[in-house]
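Q: Hi! First time doing this. I have a protein sequence and I read that you can turn it into a structure. Is that right? Here it is:
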Amino acid sequence: MMIVRTWKSLPRLVRFMLRNAGIGILAGWFLLGMILWADVGGLYSLIVTSRFAHVAIFLLMGGFAITFGAAGVASAVLLGHEFEEDAGPGGSSTAPVTELKPALLKAPARK
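A: Yes, that's right. Below is the predicted 3D structure, encoded as structure tokens:
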């Protein structure tokens, strides 16, 4: 219950970024697992025969987490995903749309 209360107390932007970074990290780790399972380029065979297999896995997981976590956040921002609190029943934002009008300024006459 404390975790839910702490999560709800975070600003919406932070929750948005953490959620999408988490999705990206999980997708990256899934891809890493599939690469190791398929033994692409003999990577899994190389790792399991090494004395420092745990270090290699840790570094791979860190690299994939950073790369895919950032990609998850960037793709959510660039695709225009909205916060779920801002979305109305149809999925669109309830923010009012104002018409933009050009500002007219008087310029001094040239001499």
